[in-house]
Amino acid sequence: MTTAGPGLHDQVLDTLGLAITAGEYPPGSVIRTDEVAQRFDVSRTVVREVVRVLESMHLVESRRRVGVTVLAIEEWNVFDPRVIRWRLDGADRPRQLRSLTMLRSAIEPVAAGLAARNATAEQCAELTACALGMVSTSRGQQLPEYLRHDIAFHRVILTASGNEMFARLGDVVAEILTGRTHHQVMFDDPDPAAVTLHVEVAGAVREGDAERAERITREITVGALAELDVLAPDPSA
Amino acid sequence: MTTAGPGLHDQVLDTLGLAITAGEYPPGSVIRTDEVAQRFDVSRTVVREVVRVLESMHLVESRRRVGVTVLAIEEWNVFDPRVIRWRLDGADRPRQLRSLTMLRSAIEPVAAGLAARNATAEQCAELTACALGMVSTSRGQQLPEYLRHDIAFHRVILTASGNEMFARLGDVVAEILTGRTHHQVMFDDPDPAAVTLHVEVAGAVREGDAERAERITREITVGALAELDVLAPDPSA
DNA sequence: GAGATCTAAACGTCATACTTTTTCTTGCCG
DNA sequence: CGGCAAGAAAAAGTATGACGTTTAGATCTC
């Protein structure tokens, strides 16, 4: 699943970005723009623009007389959605899923607490609707519908937090939840306890009980962390 | 404080990016590449590359026959370090500081817990050194030195967590701490209680006590949140 | 007036020439 | 023999002109 739209630029960018994040070019490797232009049969204009974007992601560094050098992962803008997508689509998927799940576990509880303080009436209503939707699709092989409500639920929480950086993580959570559904328990119905927790979070937010919203959300994310070893086994273990 | 290196590209990018994030071009505004080329007296080549980078940050969207359109903030890659820097340097600084501090408050305790599990002996030693450095510079108008140790301390925690996304937030924390020192209490010595907390975190990490490391770090970040209203008053209040 | 067609505006792509920086070589001098 | 300086070459950076492609909007037809 790639995000490349039409246009030479996106195609080349996507191919190169995926290759780099997948480790096909180890750090320190040198890429020359003319070579890339030849390889993809595009003009140098296109390649230059691609390199500029890769450079803005700190995936590579371009230096005169030397070429385009691939940087170490420590330099990468690992929060860039496209980098995340590439890593999820490539060999780095397990590690990326671990990182994202931890990130999510750290953020969501805090976001839920903020949401309890800041959510508008409309957002509360939407949240409740999502929770109810989860309940009503939690049995009888309706996983796709359940997933939809689940994703929507977490998106509302993150948005209602009022923090635009938290809100931006909605896609990340969606990706994790989707990955979980597709890789792990496609056959099982969701855990009823988890469904209940979501309903309770919606209630806590509606009542403005920040402390409770945060606590219960933490329970949800603890579950997500527990699933990690099934979804993305620790390579160091 | 801008990050633009030499080269036309960076200059134009920095100027445009700052202008957009500062709200000089409201969402929906249209920018035409030729105009920009004229205004900065550079070739279209340069402008195109700049636009491509801005596009990769989701600050703008380029459509044929219409021009380069500025997107709403909801679309921005607010995690991009350059976007963060621009917002910190522009009119959006208070709001950006709020968001970053909340982000930090959510992440750092979790990172400290992970660090307690994953830190190498070397990292433990470095952490202790930082904490001791903080103690020894915490009195007698040595704020610059204290700040240096403080930043290093938090960087080690984030790196030692083993999560490359957390590690990337080192710059963010550095920015917040620097801003705090320069805007708020330039004249006061640091709070002794805060210094003690850092020492305790170092100890907990060294002993591998994840729960304690997380709890005490949370105390530190609660303090950071409390300072928010002085540093970056809530506009909605 | 609704729909199809035409047009022009703006970005997208290409090719080429030239500039600038930086590395590496070469050769001089001590 | 070694170091330093001058120079050559390599690769990215910049500029320019031409042409392709998409698409909003005007025009034309029925």
UniProtKB/TrEMBL annotation, chains A, B:
One Pfam family named in its UniProt record: FCD
Keyword set, alphabetical order: DNA-binding, Transcription, Transcription regulation
Keyword Zinc-finger recorded: no
KW DNA-binding (keyword) present: yes
All residue ranges annotated as the HTH gntR-type domain in the record: 6-73
Xref: PANTHER family: GNTR FAMILY REGULATORY PROTEIN (PTHR43537:SF44), TRANSCRIPTIONAL REGULATOR, GNTR FAMILY (PTHR43537)
Protein name: FCD domain-containing protein
